[in-house]
C-alpha cells in the first residue's frame, strides 16, 4: 500500500475528507494498519429496527451508523452465533424473517455490508455457541454436542471458514476477527475449559473456576483456537486476528493465560480485554503497560466497556511504549451507561460502579434521566425513538483530540 492510499484509507475511517493526511496525528501511532479505533458493538440494532426503533441526533433522524460516525466513531463490532435459532433467537424479539435469525450469518452479513458501506472498520466476534458465550457459560452448539474432540476441532474450523467465505462473497469481510468471546476460562465446555490458576480476588468467581477438573485444559483450548485462527488466515489473510480475555483488570491472570496460549503455538495478532470495573485504581493501566512490554509482537485493545469512557480510551490511546488499537463500547443504544435515551429515559441500566468493592458512579458527562424506581430496565420494548444523549459529547471531543 502506498503512503497516499494509507492516508486516504485512514481519512475514510475517521470520516475525514478524502486526501486528508494523518501525518503527525496521534492516530498514526501503533502497529496496526488502521488508526485508533473508536468502536461500538451494535449487534442489537437490526433486531431493534425490526421492532420499530428509529434513531435521532439533535432532533434529526438518521441511520444509527451515520449518527455514530458523525460523533467520532470509526469502527463497529458484530457478534455471530452458530445456530441462534436453537438458542439466542428463541428468546429474542420476533424476527420478520424466521429463516434468518438474529446474529446468525445472514443477518450478520446484512449488517456487515451496512458497516462497510458507511466506510467503517469492521470487527467480528465468533461465539462458538447457539447463544451467549461468556465467563459464566461456554455452551456447545446443539449440533456439536455429541462430537468427539477431533470432530469438535474440525467443526470450529469448518464453521469459521464457511462463515468468512460467505462474508467474503458478500464483500463484507471483517478487518478484525475475534476467535471466541471472553474465553478466559476456555470455550466449548467441558472440552475446552481451563482451570483458573491465579485467584481473581472475587470469591464467587474463584469458587467456580479454581477447582475445575482439567480434562486437557490449555492443550485442548489451543487446538480449538488454532482451528478458528487457521481458517481465518486462510480466508482473510489481510484481516487481523484476536482472542478475548474478560479480565482486563487482572494482569497476573492475563499473563498466565497468554503465556499458556503462546507456549502451545496459538498464533494471533492481538488480545481484546473486557474492562467494566477495576479492583483497585490503576489495574487497567497496569495490564496495558505490562502487556506491550511482555509481548512486543502483539497488540491489545478493549473489546468491551461502558462507563468511564474518556478515562479508559485515554489509557488505551496514551499507553506508555505503545498504544492499543482502540476500544469498543458494548451495545451503547441500550446497555449500562447508554448513549441513547428512549422517550427521555436511558435504555441502559446505568453506569457500572468504578471499583468492584464500592458504588462509585463515574459518569463523565450529563446523561439521560434515570429510569423511575422499580421500573425494569433490561426488558423495556426495543422499538421506539432513540435520541443520542449528552454522553455523545465525550466521543466527539475524544475523536477531535486524538486526531491532534
Molecular shape:
globular
**Helix count, per DSSP?**
12
Radius of gyration: 20 Å
Biggest β-sheet strands, sense, barrel: 8 strands, parallel
Instruction: Report the average pLDDT across residues.
Output: 85
- Distance between the first and last residues' Cα: 24 Å
Residue stretches low in confidence (pLDDT < 50, at least 5 long) are 1-33, 360-379
What proportion strand?
A: 15-25%
Largest sheet: spatial strand order: 11-10-9-6-5-4-1-12
Helix content: 25-40%
The helix/strand order is HEHEEHEHHEHEEEHHEHEHEHEEEEH
Tally of DSSP β-strands = 15
Structure class? alpha/beta
Quick description:
The protein has helices at residues 3-14, 45-50, 64-70, 88-91, 105-117, 149-169, 203-209, 217-235, 251-263, 283-294, 309-317, 392-403, and strands at residues 37-41, 54-57, 60-62, 75-80, 121-126, 176-179, 186-187, 192-193, 240-245, 270-274, 299-304, 326-330, 340-342, 345-346, 385-388. With 404 residues, it is of the alpha/beta class. Strands 11-10-9-6-5-4-1-12 form an eight-stranded parallel sheet, with helices on one face. Strands 3-2-15-13-14 form a five-stranded mixed sheet.
Question: How would you characterize this protein structure?
Answer:
With 404 residues, the chain is α/β, with parallel strands linked by helices. The protein is built from twelve helices and 15 strands. The protein has an eight-stranded parallel β-sheet with strand order 11-10-9-6-5-4-1-12, with helices on one face. The protein has a five-stranded mixed β-sheet with strand order 3-2-15-13-14. A two-stranded antiparallel ribbon has the order 7-8. Strand 13 and strand 14 form a beta hairpin. Helix 6 runs parallel beside helix 8.
Amino acid at each position: 500500500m502506498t503512503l497516499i492510499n494509507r492516508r486516504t484509507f485512514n481519512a475514510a475511517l475517521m470520516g475525514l475528507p478524502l486526501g486528508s493526511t494523518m501525518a503527525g496525528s496521534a492516530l498514526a501511532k501503533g502497529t496496526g494498519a488502521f488508526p485508533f479505533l473508536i468502536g461500538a458493538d451494535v449487534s442489537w440494532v437490526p433486531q431493534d429496527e425490526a421492532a420499530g426503533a428509529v434513531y435521532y441526533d439533535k432532533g434529526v433522524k438518521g441511520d444509527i451508523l451515520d449518527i455514530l460516525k458523525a460523533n467520532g466513531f470509526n469502527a463497529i463490532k458484530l457478534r455471530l452465533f452458530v445456530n441462534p435459532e436453537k438458542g439466542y433467537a428463541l428468546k429474542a424479539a420476533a424476527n420478520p424473517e424466521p429463516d434468518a435469525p438474529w446474529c446468525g450469518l445472514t443477518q450478520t452479513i446484512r449488517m456487515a455490508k451496512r458497516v462497510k458501506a458507511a466506510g467503517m472498520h469492521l470487527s467480528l466476534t465468533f461465539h462458538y455457541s447457539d447463544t451467549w458465550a461468556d465467563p459464566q457459560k461456554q455452551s456447545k452448539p446443539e449440533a456439536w454436542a455429541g462430537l468427539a474432540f477431533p470432530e469438535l476441532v474440525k467443526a470450529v474450523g469448518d464453521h469459521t471458514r464457511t462463515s468468512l467465505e460467505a462474508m467474503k462473497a458478500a464483500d463484507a469481510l471483517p478487518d478484525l476477527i475475534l476467535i471466541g468471546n471472553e474465553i478466559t476460562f476456555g470455550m466449548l465446555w467441558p472440552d475446552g475449559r481451563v482451570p483458573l490458576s491465579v485467584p481473581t480476588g472475587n470469591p464467587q468467581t474463584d469458587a467456580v473456576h479454581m477447582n475445575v477438573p482439567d480434562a486437557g485444559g490449555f492443550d485442548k483450548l489451543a487446538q480449538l483456537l488454532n482451528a478458528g485462527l487457521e481458517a481465518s488466515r486462510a480466508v482473510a489473510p489481510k484481516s487481523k486476528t484476536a482472542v478475548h480475555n474478560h479480565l482486563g483488570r487482572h494482569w497476573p491472570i492475563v499473563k498466565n493465560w497468554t503465556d499458556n496460549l503462546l507456549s502451545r503455538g496459538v498464533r494471533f495478532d492481538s488480545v481484546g480485554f473486557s474492562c467494566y470495573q477495576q479492583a483497585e485504581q490503576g489495574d487497567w493501566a497496569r495490564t496495558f503497560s505490562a502487556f506491550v512490554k511482555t509481548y512486543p509482537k502483539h497488540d491489545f485493545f478493549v473489546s468491551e466497556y461502558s462507563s468511564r469512557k474518556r478515562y479508559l480510551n485515554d489509557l488505551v490511546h496514551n499507553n506508555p511504549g505503545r498504544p492499543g488499537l482502540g476500544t469498543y463500547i458494548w451495545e451503547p443504544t441500550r446497555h449500562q451507561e447508554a448513549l441513547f435515551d428512549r422517550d427521555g429515559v436511558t435504555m441502559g441500566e446505568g453506569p457500572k460502579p468504578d471499583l468492584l468493592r464500592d458504588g462509585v458512579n463515574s459518569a463523565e458527562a450529563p446523561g439521560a434521566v434515570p429510569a423511575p424506581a422499580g421500573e425494569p430496565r433490561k426488558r423495556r420494548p426495543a422499538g421506539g425513538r432513540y435520541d443520542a444523549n449528552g454522553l455523545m459529547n465525550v466521543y466527539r471531543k475524544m475523536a477531535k483530540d486524538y486526531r491532534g
